[in-house]
Amino acid sequence: MQTSQNLGSSRLKTVLLVLAFTWLNPHVYLDTVILLGSVSTSFGSLAWMFGLGAMSASFLFFFSLGYGARVLIPLFNKPISWKILEFITGVIMIILAFTFLFS
After folding, report:
1. Per-residue pLDDT for 85 more than 90?
2. What DSSP designation does 102 have?
3. CA distance 55 to 39
4. If phi over 0 gives left and psi between -120 and 50 gives alpha, with beta otherwise, what is residue 2?
5. Does the pTM of the predicted model rise above 0.85?
6. Quick one: 71 exposed, middle or buried, by C-beta within 10 A (0-12, 13-18, 19+)?
7. pLDDT tens string 21-63
8. Would you say residue 5 has pLDDT above 90?
9. Is 4 helix (H, G, I), strand (E, B) or coil?
């Protein structure tokens, strides 16, 4: 059984890890500030609607990712599932590479 001191330390460690993953991740700044910021300039006075849509899509994506992973645990306990996923990912990457190369 955990003591209250260990539980408090565990919570503090968890909160600090979440903050570190959030604010020390360079993709936070690349995706939100640079990418979304530059795309939003094309919407003019409706940029706030674009921002609202981007926030909604982000929430939906991460919510689905978290709960979807929980639902898919039984499927991905099998090694063949990982091989199929990696194969599909590889095919998509090759298609994208050739699309960019020949466009």
Report:
1. yes
2. T
3. 14
4. beta
5. no
6. exposed
7. 888 988 888 888 888 888 889 999 999 999 899 999 989 998 9
8. no
9. helix
Q: Which amino acid is at 100?
A: F
Tell me the C-alpha to C-alpha distance, in Å, between residue 72 and each of 25, 46, 76, 77: 26, 38, 6, 9
Q: In angstroms, rounded to a whole number, what is the distance separating the alpha carbons of residues 59 and 7?
A: 29
Let me know how long the chain is.
103
Q: Which amino acid is at 7?
A: L
Type of residue at 15: V
Instruction: State how far the alpha carbon of 88 is from the alpha carbons of 20, 79, 82, in Å.
Output: 32, 15, 10
Residues in CB range of 41: below 8 A, 6 or more apart: 47
Q: Which long-range contacts (CB under 8 A, 24 or more apart) does 2-11 make?
A: none
